[in-house]
Amino acid sequence: MGVIHIVLLEFKPNTDPEKIQDACQSLFALKDKCIHPTTNEPYLKSLVGGRDISTEGRQRGITHAFVYEFDTEEDRKYYLEKDPEHRSFVQGLRNVIACVQVVDFVPGA
Questions:
Q1: DSSP string spanning 18-37?
Q2: pTM strictly above 0.90
Q3: Which residues have a Cβ under 8 Å from the Cβ of 45 and sit 6 or more positions away?
Q4: What are the pLDDT digits (tens) for 82-97?
Q5: Do residues 107 and 48 make contact, with C-beta atoms less than 8 angstroms apart?
Q6: How far apart are CA 102 and CA 7, in angstroms?
Q7: Which of 6, 33, 57, 76 registers the highest number of CB atoms within 10 A of its CB?
Q8: Angle at 88 between CA 83 and CA 89, to 5 degrees
Q9: Rounded to the nearest 5°, which phi and psi values hold at 107?
Q10: Between β-strands 97-105 and 64-70, what pairing exists: parallel, antiparallel or unpaired?
Q11: For residue 74, what is the enclosing H or E element?
Q12: CA end-to-end span of the chain, whole Å?
């Protein structure tokens, strides 16, 4: 197993639900739109996520969670620092996101 990248989002309280849905669909589309610069193939191994449904009350404002898997740390680094599709997506979120939390790990490490 490679590198797991978890993204937790808090949308601004007055964000139109349709804009939230569009943002989530755009995020899921990254799995096919993000192309590795050497192989010219999609390189996100997996991407799952959605709206929080926890009943524990410990979300602290987080409304959505997404879990990515990359084969290598180099792939994750390219995604975060250089991938034009990811960078464009992030720019598009600036007006609707109140908070982002990110946790990355290698399973078992």
A1: HHHHHHHHHHHHHHHH-B-T
A2: yes
A3: 2, 68, 69, 70, 71
A4: 999 999 999 999 999 9
A5: no
A6: 5
A7: 76
A8: 100
A9: -50, 130
A10: unpaired
A11: helix 73-81
A12: 11
Q: Which whole-number Å values give the CA distances from 50 to 40, 78, 79, in the listed order? A: 28, 24, 20
What's the confidence (pLDDT) of residue 87? 96
Place of tokens 């799952």: 48
Structure-block tokens of residue 67? 């879990």
Provide the pLDDT for residue 99.
95
14-35 core/surface letters (b: 16 or more CB in 10 A; e: else)? eeeeeebeebbeebeebeebbe
Q: How far apart are CA 75 and CA 20, in angstroms?
A: 27
The owner of tokens 């410990």 is: 58
Burial 52-86 (b: 16+ CB within 10 A, else e): eeeeeeeeeebbbbbebbbeeeebbebbeeebeeb
What tokens appear for 58 in the block?
């410990």
